[in-house]
Each structure stands twice: as C-alpha cells, then as structure tokens.
Amino acid sequence: MAHLLGTNPLVIAHRGASGKAPENTFAAFNLAWKEGSDAIELDIRQSKDSNFVCLHDENLARFFPDKKNISSMNLDELKEIEIGSWKGSEFKNEKIPLLSEVLLNTPKNKKIFIEIKEEIEDLKPLFDEIKKTKIRINQCHFLSYFPKVVKNIKENYPRYKATINIRPNLCNYELDKVIEKIKKSYSDGVSLKIDTKESLRLLKKLKKDNYFVIGWTINDKNFMEKLIKNNIDGIITDYPIKLKKILKKYA
Is there a domain that residue 5 lies in? Predict the structure, then answer.
C-alpha cells in the first residue's frame, strides 16, 4: 500500500467540503466533487431502526438544543430534521443523508472514506446495504477508531480497505506503538492526526517503513506542503480546493 514517490496524495474532502458547506450533507459532498476532490470522507451512525445515516456526533446538540441520541431515533424522525441552516440560510433545505444515498451518487471514478463512529459488532447489515448500491469495492475505504471494527472488516470482508484512526499523542508519538496498533487490527496503514512537529516526524518514520498514511484534518497551507513533501498518501481537509491549488505546483 505504499505511495509512489512523486505522485500526488489523494485530496479527501472532510465530511465533504465542510469549510464552505454544512458537514455530512449533499451540499458539502456535491461541492467536494465540483472542486475536484479525489474522495470524500463521511461519518456514519446507526439509527434505532438500523439505518445508516451520515452524522458525526452521537446527537444533534452541536446544531440544536435537542440532545436525543441518534441511536434512539428512527429514520423517519431523522429525515424530518433540517441540518444545514446553522452554516447559512442557503442550506436551509439540507437533510440528513443515508449512506446508501451518498454511495448511489458517488461518481464512478471517485472514492469514499466511510468512518464508522460506533463499535458495531454485526457488520453484515452495513455491507448488505453497501452491496445493494453497486458501488465498486475499490471505491470504498473504511476508517475507525475502534481496532475491533477494523479487524472485523479485514477478517470478514478482506477485499475492502480498512484503516485505523490514531491520535499519535496517545501513543507518545512512538513508532513502535503505532505499528503495534496497525498490526493488531490488521489495518491497511494508518489514518493519523497530524498537527505538530512530533506527528510530522512520525509520518516520516512511517513512510520510511513503507506504510500507507493519510493525515487529518489539514487546513493550513504550510502543513499541506509539508505533508506533500513527505510523500503522504492522502490528505483529509475541510478545504479541498485549497489543497488542489497547492498540488498544481507539484504537478
């Protein structure tokens, strides 16, 4: 899974082009495609009636006073919620998308990074839903903080890519500890929070050992350039168009 020296990293729009549009909505996803992103990253949670919806938090308290958990709400209830106007009045008609809806609208030459936000044990309903959309296996790449989820995917759905999310400060920026997590979860490389000099040094070590690495959430121009120069495989950003402009210099 090594990234070839001299090739550009994937431009991955974080929850869509969420710097300009409300996260995890079709407005953000469609803008990401319009701006030329190679991929989008989105978050999924399971509703009470076992539907997979695109939401980051366990509730909607960040946007509304209601703190009811997503897992306690049925799809019909969730679909009534307007999720965009907090970002601007032009987004007042945005609703919570189903994962299947997003997959059905993903261009054939693009990728989708699906972050599983819960420690789901039975993954069959998720993969049954994905297969119904006819999206190609190589278009899907799973992310999770939960080693058991990543390992479950790799053991039961080995044709799909699955990568563990790691905050390197929790490993004291130690290469051996990160590699141990990668190996124990059977992970395809690592999705790494990169925001310090220490995390940059860790990236260099991982790439020296030929690991697949994507970094998040990178919005600073200088950091973007440092990651590109260090041959990172993918950059997750709220501003994909900014990253695209920088990459033109390295074309």
Answer: no
Please name which of 139, 138, 105, 140 lies closest in space to residue 126, comparing C-alpha atoms: 140
Taking only the tens of pLDDT, the chain with its 251 residues reads 444 444 699 999 999 999 999 999 999 999 999 999 999 999 999 999 999 999 999 998 888 777 889 999 999 999 999 999 999 999 999 999 999 999 999 999 999 999 999 999 999 999 999 999 999 999 999 999 999 999 999 999 999 999 999 999 999 999 999 999 999 999 999 999 999 999 999 999 999 999 999 999 999 999 999 999 999 999 999 999 999 999 998 87
Q: Is residue 203 part of a domain?
A: yes
CATH number (domain holding residue 190)? 3.20.20.190
**Sign (positive or negative) of CA dihedral 104, 106, 108, 110:** negative
pTM passes above 0.85: yes
Q: Is residue 97 part of a domain?
A: yes
- Angle between the N-to-C axes of helices 221-229 and 240-247, in degrees from 0 to 180, rounded to the nearest 10: 50
> Which pair of tokens denotes residue 97?
């998308």
Q: Residue 79: which of 65, 62, 98, 64 has the closest Cα?
A: 98
First to last CA, the chain: 22
- The boundaries of the domain holding residue 164 are 10-250
Among 124, 199, 147, 128, residue whose Cα is nearest residue 169: 199
Helices (H) and strands (E) in the chain, counts: 9, 9
Report the number of distinct structural domains present in the chain.
Answer: 1
227 within 8 A of 236, measured Cβ to Cβ: no
